[in-house]
């Protein structure tokens, strides 16, 4: 009788959890090694069984996180997704050990920007400004390709494409248009295209078209989640700081801020459009049901990322990555505690104040 009562209690608890659970979509920005922050956010969300994920729009490092997440979830559920993310970032760290950008005699603290001034980074930065990747890397060697293929069985991921809807953003080099890879288009090359910085890697060619990093046109694009998903809730995980208190003065800081602004620009435009439509719906100027109100939520990393220089995006030391992961976990924990009950009911971001 006691065992039966315990089983009944577990069933009741599971049923209650399903009833109270909420489904959201994710929008994941790119930012090199800073994407380990997003790893931490995803890891914490996976531990909360009240949260289900319908679709993920992602760019660059966000696309890599999204792909590992979706594959792990397909083959092993929530724990499988957590393990897949951990193994992916561990492989990234191991492969990066060869890089001259990695600190060899010391490990960086979150607030330490020493790497920006290291001789190896300065030489590499100057070389990338003078030589194209077609010149300094004529063999088009990209270790991330091997990491992705070791971490993800893309054939199996494509077979289960309906379980998690992936939308990976890339920029068409010839046309300048945004390309969204989804469904059976998801391959290792599609992920690499989404993360292809043109100063560091040759354009990724897929079906006769060349692609660069999706951050130039969508970091990430929100519209696929609006058109292709049922859930109205979109949680954006920000990597590139929207705001900085200090005016950049050094050449490196100025270039870094230019990149941050340009890589946020497409997202800002989409937020303006979403805010405009939301206002029309709230004011009942559109009430025929042709448009629906999208609920926007954000996990910002400005307090962490604003203390990091551009060079730290290339720092894939395991200690640095796990610190960012832990910061992401803590941010997601705080966000869930403050905002879970508002999911499905209202945006938890003041769109005009933050984005307009």
Describe the fold and architecture.
The protein is α/β, with parallel strands linked by helices and 356 residues long. The protein is 49% helix and 13% strand. It is built from 13 helices and 8 strands. The protein has helices at residues 2-20, 36-46, 61-96, 119-130, 133-136, 143-151, 154-159, 188-194, 223-228, 251-282, 302-305, 318-339, 351-355, and strands at 22-28, 51-59, 165-172, 178-182, 204-206, 209-213, 233-237, 295-299. Strands 1, 2, 3, 4, 5, 6, 7 and 8 form an 8-stranded mixed beta sheet that branches. It is globular and about 60 Å long. The chain starts with a helix and ends with a helix. The model is unreliable at 1-19 and 100-117 (pLDDT under 50).
What are the SSEs and their pairings?
Blueprint: H1 2-20, E1 22-28, H2 36-46, E2 51-59, H3 61-96, H4 119-130, H5 133-136, H6 143-151, H7 154-159, E3 165-172, E4 178-182, H8 188-194, E5 204-206, E6 209-213, H9 223-228, E7 233-237, H10 251-282, E8 295-299, H11 302-305, H12 318-339, H13 351-355
Parallel strand pairs: 1-2, 1-7, 2-3, 7-8
Antiparallel strand pairs: 3-4, 3-6, 5-6
Helix pairs in contact: 2-3, 2-12, 3-6, 6-8
